[in-house]
Design a protein that fits this description.
It is built from 13 helices and 20 strands. It is α+β, with helices and mostly antiparallel strands. The N and C termini lie far apart (about 50 Å).
Length: about 475
């Protein structure tokens, strides 16, 4: 007995409605539709390999490497994983030994290159900013080196990340359990030449990149103020390795795990208590949503955009899907104002205790129930608190809090008691000004990138004129 199946292309309107992150199935149909539209486009088109330095050799798969980790930039390069390329805060990334990079120079990336994840969650893209120049990057990420004599790199990035570029990129994947993308799979990807639109899109993408460099610099400066004032040493790290401390027997009645009695945490917390200080709970309302089931829906009109924990640390958070409005206790997952989110569950050396900010575009969305919500009408002090808990000092005194076996976690009561130093008003103002620069850079740069993609998509839909 035989059966006949009819294949039907999925319209671009459906793809737009579902968002940019889809499984390969819908993307295959989207890729066919995109290629057909581009084929009919009157504008001139080039293949991607003709727009990169050295042809197809300008699309690089760095190849497998031996990962040898070091502690300092003196002996290593900051190493970007396939998710780190999207991160807004690169202060916590690992360092790979310079000897590894000497064996494989293709590990290092340069400004204005385009990065595309090629394994696992394929098709995530990043534009290499000035502050990423010279870093090492995972072999799970393709590097595209635009030939700037033939195309503006910002335009190429904007086009590849549109609803036309992404499906074609992802349609080149192969493999069943772990899919992959290779340079030859996207070498013939069609790139329309759009004249003045290319210059406009490049300018917008470059402005976004420059804003992010400025914002990240301000963020690091704000955090450094806390580290300097609280006398954080070079070898102080959250949950450092071999160390010992002497504690009163009475303190063991509260916690007996070694991490809680970290010498660095005890010393830094003592420095906080020696001066003017307050606590997290006195600055902000702290709430952890109750555990409840999640009901997802494919119909955006019947749900809220749902953001998981890891996506919220990216420059441009992307929803994982839509959480149905009928989900139990849905009101506890909706964020109604700007504030701080802190991962409350997770592995010790992962995202747990890391803070991120609720930017305006997230307001009204559903957020993972595994994150603490820190809110306050006093947004000035909330930004100050954000800088503290994101600093090395803040991470050292909070990373000691989680408890539990397979999945460590912390609760609201613990977090409310975390001591926070109170500097003199002028220093608080400096911290808040820098944090405002960082938070605004996220919002504005996201808007600029979105504007660039919309500009390119509209030009293609209107025939390339």
């Amino acid at each position: 007995m035989s059966r006949k199946f009819q294949c039907k292309a999925i319209p671009s309107s459906w793809i737009e409605k579902q968002g940019r992150r889809l499984d390969c199935g819908p993307y295959m149909s989207g890729a066919m539709e995109a290629r057909e539209l581009l084929r009919k486009l009157k504008a001139r088109k080039d293949h991607l390999q003709n727009l990169t330095e050295g042809g197809i050799s300008g699309i690089i798969n760095a190849g497998r490497i031996t990962r040898r980790w070091v502690d300092t930039t003196e002996h290593g390069y900051p190493f970007l994983s396939s998710s780190d390329i999207l991160q807004a805060d690169l202060a916590n990334i690992s360092h790979i030994a310079k000897s590894v990079a000497r064996k494989n120079s293709q590990l290092l990336i340069k400004t204005s290159w385009i990065l595309i994840t090629r394994s696992g969650n394929i098709g995530r893209m990043a534009y290499v900013r000035a502050d990423m120049n010279g870093m090492a990057c995972s072999e799970d990420v393709l590097r595209i080196i635009p030939d700037e004599s033939t195309i503006k790199p910002g335009y190429l990035y904007a086009y590849l990340s549109t609803k036309f570029g992404v499906p074609i990129v992802i349609s080149g994947t192969y493999g069943s359990i772990i899919t992959h993308l290779e340079p030859n799979h996207i070498a013939d990807l069609p790139v329309p030449r759009l004249g003045a639109v290319e210059d406009q899109a490049h300018k917008l993408i470059q402005q976004a990149a420059d804003l992010r460099v400025e914002g990240a610099k301000a963020f690091n400066e704000a955090k450094f103020i806390f580290d300097e004032m609280l006398e954080v040493r070079d070898n102080d790290k959250p949950l450092c390795g071999l160390s010992f401390s002497t504690v009163n027997a009475s303190s063991l009645l509260k916690r007996v795990d070694a991490a809680y009695h970290s010498p660095s945490a005890i010393r830094i917390e003592g420095n906080i208590h020696s001066g003017s200080h307050t606590s997290v709970g006195e600055i902000a309302n702290v709430m952890l949503p109750p555990i409840s089931s999640r009901v997802m829906t494919n119909e955006p009109d019947y749900g809220y955009p749902y953001f998981s924990g890891d996506a919220l640390y990216y420059w441009t958070p992307e929803p994982k899907g839509h959480l149905a409005r009928k989900s139990p206790k849905i009101e506890t997952l909706i964020v109604n104002e700007e504030g701080i989110l802190v991962q409350a569950f997770g592995q010790t050396y992962g995202l747990i205790c890391r803070p991120t900010w609720i930017i305006p575009s997230l307001v009204g969305s559903a957020i993972s129930g595994l994150m603490l919500r820190l809110t306050s009408p006093d947004k000035r002090m909330l930004r100050y608190l954000y800088a503290f808990i994101a600093s090395r000092a803040g991470q050292i005194v909070t990373k000691r809090l989680p408890y539990g076996g397979s999945i460590p976690h912390m609760n609201e009561g613990q977090y409310r008691e975390v001591p926070v130093p109170l500097f003199e008003d002028g220093l608080i103002d400096r911290v808040c000004e820098k944090m405002e620069i960082f938070i605004n850079s996220k919002t504005t740069s996201n808007a600029l990138e979105s504007q660039a993609r919309t500009l390119v998509e509209r030009a293609i839909e209107e025939g390339g004129c």
